[in-house]
Design a protein that fits this description.
0% strand; elongated; 247 residues
């Protein structure tokens, strides 16, 4: 695991150098953005919507019994923005787009397409990683912002039908408890998650050797590794921004 992390860091440095030298094809970035985030948008929003609805259903009646039903909106908004939306959306994108990136790069590696790129004097890491890294770093935060909005709407609908909580009362506590700092941290999380998804999955694909069977094995490994590193990064970010700091 440590050696793999070191390989990821090396590939990240190579990719940044490639981007700084302005060798990245803009059209390739657009196509990768569509594959990574746009194609994963429906599943990401659906997962976050259902998660918010379930949480709203679970806590609404409990808050009602304690006379604090007005705070359902604020509770759901804070939980969504701080954790649920960036975490669940990133996991969905990693499961769908991350594995596709790994399979694509691994297939290029075992069919010697990457070796052909090397003979042309082009850095294959920068060539294949840069468009995907830029696309995920820019578009994953966009997906997370949409997921937060959809999740709040889902929680509001469930609270209305479950305990008759008026949308105005729901939204009042959203604005009361949610602050811009939480939104900024959420966007930063999404940025880090987007970089990690591409970096981990593409690196796993790049180190693949063998044949078609090994491509499948690498794809499975990439899903597991991406999930692990996303959770570790989430834990570290929460420690940095929320430990010993007021809510």
């Amino acid at each position: 695991m440590i050696s793999f992390l070191g390989l990821c860091v090396q590939n990240l440095i190579k990719t940044i150098k490639y981007i700084i030298n302005r060798q990245t094809n803009f059209s390739s970035v657009i196509s990768q953005a569509a594959m990574i985030s746009y194609d994963s948008l429906s599943i990401s929003l659906t997962i976050v919507f259902i998660a918010a609805a379930v949480i709203s259903l679970q806590v609404s009646k409990q808050f009602l019994m304690s006379g604090a039903e007005s705070y359902v909106g604020g509770f759901i908004a804070v939980a969504l923005v701080r954790e649920i939306a960036p975490g669940f959306a990133a996991l969905a994108i990693g499961a769908r787009a991350g594995t596709a990136i790994c399979a694509e790069v691994a297939n290029m590696k075992v069919t010697e397409q990457i070796d052909a790129i090397k003979t042309l004097g082009v850095d294959p890491v920068g060539y294949y990683f840069a468009p995907r890294l830029i696309a995920s770093a820019v578009t994953v935060p966009m997906v997370v912002i949409l997921a937060e909005f959809i999740g709040i709407v889902g929680g509001m609908m469930v609270a209305f039908f479950a305990i008759g909580l008026h949308p105005n009362r729901f939204m009042n506590t959203v604005w009361l408890l949610l602050n811009t700092r939480d939104i900024y941290i959420s966007i930063f999380k999404a940025f880090v998650f987007g970089v990690l998804i591409t970096l981990v999955c593409a690196t796993q694909g790049y180190k693949t050797t063998g044949g078609a069977k090994d491509v499948g094995i690498s794809t499975t490994k990439s899903a597991i590794e991406a999930t692990f590193y996303l959770l570790v990064a989430d834990f570290i970010i929460n420690i940095i921004f929320y430990v010993n700091v007021g809510i």
